[in-house]
Amino acid sequence: QKKSKKSSETLTFKRPEGMHREVYALLYSDKKDAPPLLPSDTTQGYRTVKAKLGSKKVRPWKWMPFTNPARKDGAMFYHWRRAAEEGKDYPFARFNKTVQVPVYSEQEYQMYLHDDAWTKAETDHLFDLARRFDLRFVVIHDRYDHQQFKKRSVEDLKERYYHICAKLANIRAAPGTDLKIPVFDAGHERRRKEQLERLYNRTPEQVAEEEYLIQELRKIETRKKEREKRTQDLQKLITAADTTTEQRRAERKAPKKKLPQKKETEKPAVPETAGIKFPDFKSAGVTLRSQRMKLPSSVGQKKIKALEQMLMELGVDLNPMPTEEIVQMFNELRSDLVLLYELKQAFANCEYELQMLRHRYEALAKAGSIGPLSVEGAHPDGQTGLGIEEGKGDTKDQIIDVVGAPLTPNSVRRKV
Predict the structure, then answer these.
(1) pLDDT tens digits, one per residue of 188-214
(2) Burial annotation 166-186 (CB, 10 A radius, 16+ → b, else e)
(3) From its phi and psi, is residue 382 left (phi > 0), alpha (psi between -120 and 50) or beta?
(4) Structural domain containing residue 343
(5) Which of 109, 166, 272, 307 stands the most exposed, by the fewest C-beta atoms within 10 Å?
(6) If we measure between CA atoms, which residue out of 125, 121, 161 comes closest to residue 143?
(7) Within this chain, do residues 194 and 123 fall inside the same structural domain, yes or no?
(8) 299 by DSSP, 3-state: which?
């Protein structure tokens, strides 16, 4: 017996060579059961349960009469039904939901609901149709007796009905209760239907014109956003130039006044877009000073070529001796030159946009849509300033919105 127990405990299944562990885990469970030979049929999962046919007797069905409580004419119908359900109500009668239309008395009508434009007989006729057709006012308007009574529109019928409902709710409500009184605006409904009718009666030319105007509006909004973005970039460049100048002055005055060592904390923050931002080599290890003179990858090839040309014009060596002071001064010089280059580009773009606006304004003035130009004064460089008479501010804004995004002067030269 001891030997048999030991042999049963030491019985193990080894994974065949070449079989993955996941495949082997699918074959055997934790209890080391053998895999099934045939697929097992379980009731769990997403399978639909089949009907279980037993040997019991079938429940009897009977052809029996029934009445529908939703009908008021007492009509008798027949259908097959289980014998055990004989005498019960028709099950689909519970789906017959009706709208509760309020009922008013003669005294209430004379005291609260009287209207010179409506008679009591016409009001009773309206509420009778509302009960019959469950407040389907289009059907009510179709079945309305326009020969006996005044011709009314659907909005007039709705306004009269909901006005009476609101009056009765206020009269019959207990004091201190919060009421949700239905309100119907007949004027708004008429304007809505009139607008909808105009929308459907548009011609194809009007639809095309409206789509064209919508596209032009989107273009104007896009140009406006681009102009605002260019203005912000220009303001950043101007702020960076002023900040750099103040920083240079503070550094020059620092040795004379012997300021404490708080330069890094007291330095004004320079925007990242100003000049060149050289990487800081603060990691451990030996580094070359020439690496600090290498331009970062954020500077484009166009700026690099312009920077080299400006350095050559100033007579500065492109690869100076990398001492500590020369590296710092060389980097500051290149950063200032890049900032100067960006300011020149922004100034050229503004000049070109001003010329485009001037030509556009002159063309509109010749067409007679706006007034002529008025000269306010002359600039030192000989250019005349543009002025607009008082009351023309809106026109100027419209002109600026219509003008497209100007091309750069370089692109104009290439085209020429």
Answers:
(1) 999 999 999 999 999 999 999 999 999
(2) ebbeeeeeeeeeeeeeeeeeb
(3) left
(4) 297-361
(5) 272
(6) 125
(7) yes
(8) coil
Q: Work out the average pLDDT over 58-67.
A: 91
Could you write out the DSSP letters of every residue in 230-271? HHHHHHHHHHHHHHHHHHHHHHHHHHHHT--S-HHHHSPPPP
- Residue 270 falls inside a structural domain: no
Question: What number is the average pLDDT over the span 162-169?
Answer: 92
| 111 and 136 together in one domain | yes
* Nearest 10 degrees: Cα torsion 119, 121, 124, 128: -130
User: Does residue 51 sit within a domain?
Assistant: no
Higher-confidence residue: 249 or 151? 151
Place of tokens 């639809």: 207
For the chain, how long is the longest CA-to-CA vector? 121
CA distance linking residue 27 with residue 33, whole number of Å = 9
Question: Residue 294 and residue 380: Cα distance in Å, rounded?
Answer: 40
- For 287-335, write each residue's pLDDT tens digit: 666 666 667 666 777 777 777 778 777 777 777 766 767 777 777 777 7
CA–CA separation, 295 and 293 (whole Å): 6
| Rounded mean pLDDT, 358-363 | 87
| Whether residue 390 has pLDDT greater than 50 | no
Read off the amino acid at residue 41. D
Instruction: Determine phi and psi for 92, rounding to 5 degrees.
Output: -85, 5
Are the beta carbons of 249 and 269 closer than 8 angstroms?
Answer: no
| Residues pairing with 387 in the sheet | 374
Average pLDDT over residues 25-52: 63
What is the per-residue pLDDT for 400? 44
> How far does the chain reach from its first CA to its final CA, in angstroms?
108
- Domain membership of residue 262 (yes or no) is no
Euclidean distance between CA atoms 137 and 129, whole angstroms: 9
Residue 85 identity: E
Residue 46 binned pLDDT confidence (cut-offs 50, 70, 90): low
82 strand-pairing partners: 61
Long-range contacts (CB closer than 8 Å, 24 or more residues apart) made by 90-93: 90/66, 92/68, 93/68, 93/69
Which DSSP symbol is given to 329? H
In the chain, how many domains are there? 4
Q: Which of the listed residues 199, 217, 242 is the one where a domain comes to its end?
A: 199
Tell me: do 154 and 189 sit in the same domain: yes
Whole-model pTM: value is 0.44
